[in-house]
From TrEMBL:
PANTHER family: 6-PHOSPHOGLUCONATE DEHYDROGENASE (PTHR11811). It catalyses: 6-phospho-D-gluconate + NADP(+) = D-ribulose 5-phosphate + CO2 + NADPH. This is 6-phosphogluconate dehydrogenase, decarboxylating. It comes from Mycobacterium botniense. Belongs to the 6-phosphogluconate dehydrogenase family. The active site is at K192, E199. GO terms for molecular function: NADP binding; phosphogluconate dehydrogenase (decarboxylating) activity. Residues 188-477 form the 6-phosphogluconate dehydrogenase C-terminal domain. Pathway: Carbohydrate degradation; pentose phosphate pathway; D-ribulose 5-phosphate from D-glucose 6-phosphate (oxidative stage): step 3/3. The keyword Oxidoreductase applies.
């Protein structure tokens, strides 16, 4: 333990961390390992002491038992990072801190807060002269310790005092930190939320690929681990594909079976994916892949319905694919194409959120800071960055030359996978909705004209014409002539 630990010297710590569960404690250690003096606080001091006992030698920590002691340990303007559970717990800690802080001090919420809460809190703190920074932090426990991807929102001015420290402890790719100022108030938590939505989608797609290999080709978990390890050497190179291979290779100590085969197939969620879809519904952005992923988790947990439906006829199913190597390559291509769609949808939601709230988020910057540290880090984020660098107002990633090429070369495989899976009776909501999204966007005339006409028929909701400006209504219950609306 350093000399500073247990020392009541005041005003020496550059950052304070309150909430010392695994994430908070790892991030505090990360700061300390980078040479910062870190003030520690936790509701119960046992956690603080445990951290000091186990890791106190990693750097300079200042122990505190009470909020006044904690704040007195910090240099001014004070920077306090809150790492507590999102929701009511966060509000309680913020208020406790705010009551004892001085104008100009900075409160950083590093949890997965709902961005509308962050907007509210930022406003309330600004009225008290305090800076409030909602910072999305991704990378799990390991990232928190060794370099996460950090998405701080809040006032630009607070980033000046805080940014360099956050950049230092973040992951770095090609020497570039995976941290940048996202924009005002709730923008940091908004992009973290969408990050998680993409994470859900990516995980669902990987799950579908796994199930196709397992049930379509009868491969064992270790065999599928080899497939994912191989895929990770190419354009699918990503953290989630890499850990998938590691998970599938893991044996269960109790039974000797692959661990994945003894885990209950009911996916849980803490809520960020659901928030992403709710927000997308409000913004009118079709994040179909993310929505399918959220619903697929809910379906897996619909135990009563699943139990009731077991044994329902599958109809006539096709034989297993006759060329396993080809089918495996088709699945790889379908996964890549569907994944591009997931990111395209997520970036559209970020563009829409940015426009709605006036955040001025730069999508290329996001692609840059998601290249390392975070859960969705992937090699192809470099390509996303290039695409937005070339055209910051790109309407959709799928038309950027690199992605257009990738999708067009994958599309035959993608269709084969969707139709083969359907003929095999294997559910693929992610793959099929991504392909439908692709087909819908490239379709010149969608059936929406009919929907407009139906709406006009039963509700006089009016429609626009392709050959004239303005709105029109047909007198459906009258002589069926058209009148301007
Ligand atoms: C991250 C993760 C992290 C957390 C998810 C899990 O970026 O580090 O996204 O935030 O693991 O919230 O979410 P679910 O419990 O909803 O799957």
């Amino acid at each position: 333990m350093s000399l500073l630990a247990h020392n009541m010297t005041t005003g020496t710590a550059q950052i304070g961390v309150t909430g010392l569960a695994v994430m908070g404690s790892n991030i505090a250690r990360n700061f300390a390992r980078h040479g910062y003096t870190v003030a520690l606080h936790n509701r119960s001091v046992t956690k603080t002491d445990a951290l000091l006992d186990e890791h106190g030698s990693e750097g300079n920590f200042v122990r505190s038992e009470t909020i006044p002691e904690f704040l007195a340990a910090l240099e001014k303007p004070r920077r306090v990072l809150i790492m507590v559970q999102a929701g009511a717990a966060t509000d309680a800690v913020i208020n406790q801190l705010a009551d004892a802080m001085d104008p100009g001090d900075i409160i950083i919420d590093g949890g997965n807060a709902l961005y509308t809460d962050t907007i509210r809190r930022e406003k309330a703190m600004a009225q008290r002269g305090l800076h409030f920074v909602g910072a999305g932090i991704s990378g799990g426990e390991e990232g928190a310790l060794n370099g996460p991807s950090i998405m701080p929102g809040g006032p630009a001015q607070s980033y000046e005092a805080l940014g360099p420290m956050l950049e230092t402890i973040s992951a770095h790719v090609d020497g570039v930190p995976c941290c940048t100022h996202i924009g005002p108030d709730g923008s940091g938590h908004f992009v973290k939320m969408v990050h998680n939505g993409i994470e859900y989608s990516d995980m669902q797609l990987i799950g579908e690929a796994y199930q196709l290999l397992r049930d379509g080709l009868n491969l064992t978990a270790p065999q599928i681990a080899d497939v994912f390890a191989d895929w990770n050497n190419g354009e699918l190179d990503s953290y989630l594909v890499q850990i998938t291979s590691e998970v599938l290779r893991q044996p269960d100590a109790k039974t000797g079976k692959p661990l994945v085969d003894v885990i209950r197939d009911e996916a849980e969620q803490k809520g960020t994916g659901r928030w992403t879809v709710k927000s997308a519904l409000d913004l009118g952005v079709p994040v179909t892949g993310i929505a399918e992923a959220v619903f697929a988790r809910a379906l897996s947990g619909s135990v009563a319905q699943r139990r009731a439906a077991i044994g329902l006829a599958a109809g006539q199913l096709a034989d297993a694919p006759s060329d396993p190597a080809r089918f495996t390559e088709d699945i790889r291509q379908a996964l890549y194409a569907s994944k591009i769609v997931a990111y395209a949808q997520g970036f559209n939601q970020i563009q829409a959120g940015s426009a709605e709230y006036g955040w001025n988020i730069k999508p290329g910057d996001l692609a840059t800071i998601w290249r390392g540290g975070c859960i969705i880090r992937a090699k192809f984020l470099n390509r996303i960055k290039e695409a937005f660098d070339t055209d910051p107002n790109l309407p959709t990633l799928i038309v950027a030359p690199y992605f257009r090429g990738a999708l067009e070369s994958a599309v035959d495989s993608w269709r084969r996978v969707v139709s083969t899976a359907t003929q095999l009776g294997i559910p693929i909501p992610g793959f099929s909705s991504a392909l439908s999204y692709y087909d819908a966007l490239r379709t010149e005339r969608l059936p929406a004209a009919l929907i407009q006409a139906q709406r006009d028929f039963f509700g006089a909701h009016t429609y626009g014409r392709i050959d004239e400006p303005g709105k029109f209504h047909t007198l459906w219950s009258g002589d069926r002539s058209e009148v301007p609306a």
